[in-house]
Amino acid sequence: MIRCLYFLCSFVLLLASCGRAQENKEGIEGELRIEQTTDYLRIMQGDQPVLNYWLTPQLPEGIPEHYTRSGFIHPIWSPSGQVVSDGFPAGYSHQNGFFNAWVNTTFRDSFVDFWNTHKQLATLRNQEIIETVAEEGVVGFKAKIAHLSNAHGEVLTENLTVRVHTPTTDKDTNGVFVWDVRSEQTNVTQDTLFLNKHLYGSLGIRGSKHWNKKDTTNFMGLANFLTSDGLTRDSANHTHPEWTAIYGDLPKGKAGMVVVPHPENFRWPVAVRVHPELPYFSVSPVTEEGFYIVPGEVYVSRYRVVVFDGFAGERSFSDRVERVLEAYN
Length: 329
Prior knowledge:
This protein is mainly beta. The chain is built from two helices and 20 strands. The strands form four sheets. It has an eight-stranded antiparallel β-sheet, covered by helices on one side.
């Protein structure tokens, strides 16, 4: 994680040069807590939402039924309350916030695509909340998600663990939301799942509707991307960075999020698919070579997410983020 911290600090220095945005709050008030209904589980920081996980199948009005999904994280909020993710975006209803799904797979000699639900081959469904956690310094949950093939039933069972950290009380480090994700995908069948080489797949991150050119009502400008290697949208695709950031203009100023894959992840530093036009990227270990998950095997991936507003403050934003990450490691 030392290298991740170093490169993330470099990211913020570069990001600060992109222009001034709304200043961060000096502090995020209130205790972390879980708010749960029949439809969703939401983590709150006082009255401010941090992230939302969907328990029941979702389908916005006017969208074909085959896009129905649950078991994904959206909205994702910045500390000032801006939404930096999108769900069922205009023109791309199969991409939803923060989600895990494989694309080009072979199972029992048939093609199965868990990502592109419009192909009507597979989907994901939340099954249950296994546990919730509220301890000193962290609040979170563990959810069980079924990766379902329309032809073969459940192929993978995913245990998704999310932990949101309590912001520090220091005003210089209390300006971001920090949360960790652990995904454990188990092949629950008697047959091997082959994950073939593909352009993208595994972790998907869909950015704000305000960065989606097809959403003519809300579009404000294309999203910006930056990686730990200093690469942007035009050059980052299928490189192997230690972190990837997506950010851009929102109604109350710039905001975005950074995704930092854990160094113990398979094929780390993992390749990223950075789309040339759309506000999304995928952290994907199959862009160069496929692999397989045998019956009973567990595929594990871990990520840290940092969600931020603006780049201004009494200290440089890079100093703020550096101190935040030091506080949580």
